[in-house]
Fold this protein.
Amino acid sequence: MLADGAKGKAIARWSESLRRAADLEHWAAFGRSFHALAELILDVARGKHGNQPPATVCVLSGDVHHAYVARAHYPEPIATEVYQLTCSPLHNYVPRAMKAAFRLSWSDAAERLTRVLLGLVARVPDAGIYWQREAGPYFGNELMTFTAAGRLATVELSKTRAHEQEPALHVVQRIALSSG
């Protein structure tokens, strides 16, 4: 939100420079478009446009050098399951410290601390959506397979193992994304 200019042009330039330097390309860095997408997904999940709500809505993404599955929780209950399926099939080497940072960033404590620190310089708006990690983060060469059959949907995450003589994909997680 700071990069949007709410606290002035100098803060916006500094915030955008920091976002780029830290390679922060995740949803939280793009508040307006994130909220618009979250509202669109909620409308679809409610069947707002006159159609039967789907069994699941999945947002597919990648290029983050790891893989995970996260389920969205909206303030009011909805029948449709909403997921973000993220997989970077080929990755750059991720140092141990960065892996630890990725894992830590999924914690509730890290979220609270980030909100407190950002709250010192700007109002942090409620995202209106909460993400719960269902699988991951996984690091390495990975493949995510999404399968849909009618109203049933699943995702399977496979990855290679380090130092294998004959590299092969191994299933590390299988998740039902809808109950049909």
User: Anything to note?
Assistant: The longest strand covers residues 130-138. Strands lie at 56-61, 67-73, 81-86, 130-138, 142-149, 152-159, 170-176. The radius of gyration is 18 Å.
